[in-house]
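Deviations from the work plan: none for this task. Representative record:
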Amino acid sequence: EAQVTQNPRYLITVTGKKLTVTCSQNMNHEYMSWYRQDPGLGLRQIYYSMNVEVTDKGDVPEGYKVSRKEKRNFPLILESPSPNQTSLYFCASSLDGGTYEQYFGPGTRLTVT
Amino acid sequence: GENVGLHLPTLSVQEGDNSIINCAYSNSASDYFIWYKQESGKGPQFIIDIRSNMDKRQGQRVTVLLNKTVKHLSLQIAATQPGDSAVYFCAENFPGTYKYIFGTGTRLKVLA
């Protein structure tokens, strides 16, 4: 089954404790992206990757890091999480970045206390 | 389920009626637009897309209209069903970039 998977689905952590949210797709997609979703603000793009070893900032990259060492994986790293990063996070992938729909994962609910 | 938006505009329609969801986009140069549906507890799901060289595109029970003059996008759902209840987002792609900007969403409630 073609899908985007994220782990963990739920995470509660404390300020400053480094964490990684994994994202994997099995569709051989070139493009992958991370979004955060907050009430009243919709989805905001954090980082995206056009291909292996090629990443770029979205609209809200501060406090996040990403890497794309393999085509299928695109982890999101929070080196020092803060309470304002409490949010619902979605990973997405598409065939390429500019002209194809994105397939979204199920989401990761992160709470930073 | 996940709380995708506490203060979203809401459209309530009777089952069987047509629904029209509107979206104003931000960049007059954007050349690719997508509508997504998000059900409670799930990630957004693709509905239909349209490129800037078109002003209308039809799918199964859905139609997207693009008015570039006023930077407006609409999604029309024919014969709305209870399963259409969800939050709907439009998204635009900036030309020459791989960045996407999403609207804040509209909640559609289908009344039986």
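Chain A touches chain B at residues 4, 31, 33, 35, 37, 39-45, 48, 50, 56, 58-59, 88, 90, 92, 97-99, 101-107, 109 (CB under 8 Å).
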